[in-house]
Structure formats: C-alpha cells, structure tokens
Amino acid sequence: MGIDASQLRQLVIAPTLHHLQRHSASAEALLLAVAACQSGLGCQLADSNCYGIFQISADQHQSCWDSYLAADPCLASQVRGLASQHAFLQDPHLELAVNLRYATAIAWFLIEAQHIELPATPDIQRFARIWQQVFNPAGLSGDFLQAWHNCLDGSLQAA
C-alpha cells in the first residue's frame, strides 16, 4: 500500500515546490504522476540502485548535484537544508528513500536541469514524454498512463 495521493500532494509536493519557489499546478501534477509511475506512490522504495518514491538512481542523484545544483550555491544550500544532518553525510542516496521532501526536490531539479517547459495545465501525454526523458527512457508511455489512472484517480482534478 502506497501513500495517499492527495496527502502526498498537499503535505509534501506542494510545500516543497513552494519552498523552492518552483510551484505550479503542472509541477505538482507531474511530480505526483511520476511518483505514481515510478513506485506506485511509495509501494516500492528501493530497487537495485534506485531510491524513493521517484526511483532516482545514485547516478542521477550525483549528476543532479554535480551538474546542476553545484552551479548555484544558494539553491544547493536550500536543497541541502531539506536533507537530514547526519544521515545525508553517511549515505546521501538513502536520503531519497527516507526523506520525501528531499526526494521531491531532487526529482524536480532532475526535470529542471533538462530545461523542460511544462504545459500551463496538466497534460498527461506531455507528462508521459517528460517521465520517459528524465526518469525512464526505456519506459512505455502506456505504463505511465496506466499508473496515472490506477494511482491518481481524481486527485489531480483538485489542482
């Protein structure tokens, strides 16, 4: 059993995007849909070398820091502030599985680093292409659409 979609959206995704000054209805919906597709909204938190509700690989995590966040020390500090003090230093990738706000921030910056322009309103077909580009290049858009319908069932209409 995963995390309730509306609670994940209201208590984690929206506040994190606001904190990062990146909030939009499309950003919320996209991240919620990615979590639904990648992990069934948290039903699976670790799979080989991928972690958390967004199933971010260690390589993606490292690349996000090295290639994107490190270029902006203020932004890097803001994201680092979401991580736990000691656990992050011992196993930074595990933070993606145990810290929902941190994982959400990293997922967002993986998208932002690709210079992807989001649609003004949630667009499932466009979101499926973004998911494939950023999170699962071998994934099928049908998998994304199925996860959208199975896990989100109306929770995106309130956006």
Report on this model:
Helix 1 packs across helix 7 (100-112). The model has no long low-confidence stretch (mean pLDDT 91). This protein has one domain (5-152). With 159 residues, it is mainly alpha-helical. The chain contains nine helices and three strands. The chain is globular and about 40 Å long.
Number of domains: 1
Helix content range of the residues, please? 55-70%
CA(first)-CA(last) distance: 23 Å
How large a portion of the residues is in β-strands, by DSSP E? under 5%
CA-based shape: globular
Poorly predicted runs are none
Number of strands: 3
Strand order in space, largest sheet: 1-2-3
Cα-atom radius of gyration:
14 Å
Protein name: Transglycosylase SLT domain-containing protein
Question: What keyword list fits this structure?
Answer:
159 residues, 3-stranded antiparallel beta sheet, 9 helices, 3 strands, Transglycosylase SLT domain-containing protein
